[in-house]
Amino acid sequence: MSITNVYCYSEALSPITHMSRSEGNESLIAVEPVKTEDGIAWVPYLSGNALRHRCVRMPGGRYLVERLRLAGKLSLEQLNFFFHGGNLTESTGRENTARIVEMYRLFPFLRLLGGCLPDQVLSGSLHAWRGTLFCRENATVIKALLPEEWTTDGVRFHPAQSFISAYQYTRSDAEKTTPDLLPKGAVKTQSNLMIFSGQAVMRGAAFLHGFAVLHPSPLELGALLHSLLLWAAHGTIGGQAARGHGKLKTYLLGDDPARADAVLAYLDHVEANADQAREWFQDTFVRKTPKKGA
Amino acid sequence: METNTLPCLDPQAFRRKIAGLLDQETPLTEEANDEMRTLASSLVCLMAQLFGKELDRITLWSRIDSALKTACSKVRDRNMELFVNHCLEHVKADPGRACLSEGLGKLLIALADKPAEWRQAFTRFIETRIYAVLVRGKEEWGWKKLEMKTERGEI
Fold first, then answer.
1. Does B6 contact A225 at a Cβ distance shorter than 8 Å?
2. I need a labelling partner for A265 at 20 to 30 A (CA). Which of A51, A169, A244, B93 fits?
3. What distance in Å separates the CA atoms of residue A101 and residue A112, rounded to the nearest whole number?
4. What distance in Å separates the CA atoms of residue A42 and residue A57, rounded to the nearest whole number?
């Protein structure tokens, strides 16, 4: 089986708040247990699910919707298919090989990610890895994940704990900030200032993450790399992006000139097949009319 | 977008990148941690001793707590004299009493002798264990008061 691995090195340009849960008004970042020589340590990570969605599906899907001029013309069902993988909604599933072949031909991006049409589950070829923090506890994992020539032998990273910082914000109260806009004689209420705080992985920390694409064509690889490029330009990871969190600077490990060609080939492919792609998309999601008497 | 792919790193550039994530410092020993515990307690005890007369004594421990937090936030360059100074200013310590404090002199000498990584670890130690530091400092202050009363012949 041919597999193409795309390795990414992402350094945090702002605090990264990939949350797991809230306790009171404090958000706690996602941590996972890691076996180390000194026992089990809990280390921040980025989930493969979040990376797949934010770095690939969302930017790549948006690009297609805009390029195919589908904005405003898609149903909720279609949008869910594009941006969240879709759902089986029909009572009887089926295996329409011709339709799969056509979809894979027209949409390298959807071949990459797969998804659920109303009556058919389609596998994708993209495996997203988890984001692994460069820290002492993950040293063995990082060494195992990287290709041989990218050695980290003999280095001693800072412990994970030293990359965790905290933030605190206050949500103000309109009674304090815009009292002039309140109706005259409005009843004064108790102050409603909300303090919310949490943990974050600090600026300057770095994650190793990446993607494995199973027996890819250059077009799929191009779709992946193009999505990553869009995400790197405008996207974030984790929460609190409204307050400047979640920005990563991402580098690909290794220089392969075929990557740029793959992206160009993908963009040409989208342009050349736009009409057919639009038709396929509209035909596939035509709602079946119920039979008489049903 | 200027290019068609993300920027790339070769193995050498990668090594340079991760060099910024490496821990070059010698790990602190258990003895070093014990010493930090002792000196942090001494600092808290000194703040209680030199607590400004114009402040309400009822606020003693919350004021010392905020003194430590403020000093940790303000001093990021491992400057221990500045750190102690911020603490004492926050509790409005009288300069005259501070000059006469033998404990303060000893503390400043002890902190000045430490290597840079120890000093950085010290502020981190206080910042991350604030309650334990306060409790131990309060206990030391209790013993100190007893000692002072004994010296004055009150006991």
1. yes
2. A51
3. 13
4. 29
Taking an 8 Å cut-off on Cβ atoms, the answer to whether A232 and B6 are in contact is yes
d(CA B47, CA B66): 12
Contact A12, A245 (CB under 8 A): no
CB A249 within 8 A of CB A11: yes
Closest-CA distance, A228 to chain B, in angstroms, reads 8
Q: What angle do CA A192, A195, A197 make, to 5 degrees?
A: 160
pTM above 0.95, yes or no: no
Do B6 and A136 make contact, defined as CB atoms within 8 angstroms?
no
Asked if A229 and B10 come within 8 Å (Cβ–Cβ), the reply is no
Please write the tens of the pLDDT for every residue from B14-72: 988 888 777 766 667 888 889 999 999 999 999 999 999 999 999 999 999 999 998 98
Average pLDDT, chain A: 88
Give the largest CA-CA distance in chain A: 74
pLDDT at A287: 60
- Residue contact A134–B1, C-beta within 8 A: no
A22-67 tens-digit pLDDT: 887 788 899 999 988 878 889 999 999 999 999 999 999 999 999 9
List the single residue in B3, B10, B22 with the smallest CB-CB distance to A155. Answer: B22
Per the DSSP assignment, residues forming a β-bridge with A140 are: none
Nearest-CA distance A96 → chain B (Å):
35
Chain A partners within 8 Å of B4 (Cβ): 225-226, 229, 259-260, 263-264
Closest chain B residue to A227 measured between Cα atoms? B5
ipTM higher than the 0.85 cut:
no
Across chain B, mean pLDDT equals 89
**Residue of A25 and A127 predicted with greater confidence:** A127
In sequence order, what are the beta bridge partners of A213? Answer: A4, A126
Q: What is the count of residue pairs from A and B with beta carbons less than 8 Å apart?
A: 72
Model pLDDT for residues A214-247, shown as the tens digit of each residue: 988 999 999 999 999 999 998 999 999 999 999 9
User: Nearest-CA neighbor of A76 among A64, A89, A67?
Assistant: A89
- Interface mutation vs chain B, best among A156, A161, A207, most B CBs within 10 Å: A156
Whose tokens are 């990264």? That residue is: A16
